[in-house]
Amino acid sequence: MALTPERVEARLRERFPGVAFERQQGEAVRDFTLYLPAESLVEVCTFLRDDAELRFAMMPWMGGADYLPRVPRFECVYNLLSLEQHLRFTLKVRVSEEQPRVPSVVGVWPTANWHERETYDFYGITFTGHPDLTRILLPEDWVGWPLRKDSPLGYEEVAFTHNTPGRREPSPALKRLAPKKVRYRAQ
Per residue in 136-159, pLDDT tens? Predict the structure, then answer.
């Protein structure tokens, strides 16, 4: 029998009766997604990886999202993959703006290392227990979190002939480059 997302949800509710799982609903929901509280994240992820029926051995992607002005403002999204069962499953954790903290799942899936660092780098969400929570793509001296919706855009106009003082049109006498004639060995 093929494993279904509904069966995964049933196994989670059976194994963790005290955890408040919530299925994401709506017309725009494409993937089967469960919300769970941050404090249960590591235990649930470990179960998903180690359970003989489920075997979510891979976390190919993890990222953040900012839903300003919604409260709680942020979400961490975990896309999981069971290679044996040919099934994808998504977990989400809501994160407050006041304390943007989520436990790290690097101990469950080592690939989370760089994904969590990227989420920290762009959204400022801290992953407690992360072995090296430093910026990964932006310079160390960068101030702020660029993918937050309230981050300043830092607009810089692109220089064109019409908006750059002192810039001249190219001379019509300039020679246009013609394509080179290439000779291949096979010819």
Answer: 999 888 888 999 988 877 666 665
